[in-house]
Structure formats: C-alpha cells, structure tokens
Amino acid sequence: LVIVFDGADISGAHRENRSPIRVMYSPNGITADDVIREEVRRLPLSRPVVVITDDQAIQRDVRSEGANIVSSAHFSQVLYS
Questions:
Q1: What is the pTM of this model?
Q2: How far does CA 39 lie from the centroid of its chain?
Q3: Could you read off the pLDDT of 27-36 as tens digits, one per residue?
Q4: Do residues 51 and 32 make contact, with C-beta atoms less than 8 angstroms apart?
C-alpha cells in the first residue's frame, strides 16, 4: 500500500516505510498527482494496481496505464463494513 501526499511544505524525509505501508510526500515543485502517475507508470503491467481517487484527471491517466480505479466513497465503505 502506497499513500501519497502533497509535501512541498513538509521538511525532512519524503518517504516513510512502515511495512506494509509506504508513505510518500511529493517533493517541492511536484504534485502528489504527478507522483501517483509516475508510481503507476513504473509498475509492471502484470502487477495489479488500484488507485483510490475521485480526481477525474488522475483516473483517466492511471487507467490508461492499466490501473483500476476505486472512488474514495467506495473505499470508505469497504473500510468500515
């Protein structure tokens, strides 16, 4: 599981690993959206990828790279059911 935040205003490390969760903060000048796109792009097509977002542009871009999309509302329902 990888969680990506906009992190230009956060000083210090831009990655944390707390297995099985990896937290990433986008570097200065790069949005979390672009980090998400790049993370999806670099994964092999054989690996299943799910991106949780309601952002239509990210959905379009990562879907074109083979990722599956889950809305935030649906993910929340799954977490709390």
A1: 0.81
A2: 7
A3: 888 999 999 9
A4: no
